[in-house]
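REQUEST ID: PR-0412
SUBMITTED BY: lab tech R.K.
PRIORITY: routine
TASK: structure prediction, single protein chain
INPUT:
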Amino acid sequence: MVQRIMSRLEDRKVGVLAIQGDYARHKHQLDQLGVITVLVRLKADLEQLDAIIIPGGESTTMDIMLDRFGLREPLQQFGRSKPVFGTCAGMIMLASKIKDNLSKVTPLGLMDIDINRNGYGRQVHSFEKTIEANLAGKYTKLTATFIRAPIVTRVGSEVISLATYEGDPVLVRQDNLLTASFHTELDDDTSLLEYFLNEVR
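STATUS: complete
OUTPUT:
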């Protein structure tokens, strides 16, 4: 199975934002699929990428580092036309509005969603659930790990919910953008990553 995937994806060049957060786990999954991976820390690293992943982490620090490394505007420009996948803090950064924004994080404003940071609780309230996601018309079970996860409070008219938890969207897509409240990169299940690489264009 993996060998068949690698034959399709081995020429794909995918970046992982590597200024803060657990970017190593995303790189590990990309390596499993034979994808050419670039750790993105500078504007020049975005050149010739086919897609980028914004990992989970600490959104306040990530926000500061985007400006420090001059990546905010280049990422916004990239996300207007190319695939971007954000997990957890990546969802926060892709959102249009953060409702409980005491840390004054400035999101990239690429996806028409509003979120609450830590909507599913603090670090000590982290939990793991099995959810079903509609991935390319097929319902797929995913092990979803929620760690200080944001909760989606509003979705725009062009945003599609692919999975919910207790009635709230936790995996949403808008054209070339995909974002999840949870993590799947913490184990070796690459189903969601494969969906992003193959279907989100």
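NOTES: The radius of gyration is 15 Å.
REVIEWED BY: pending
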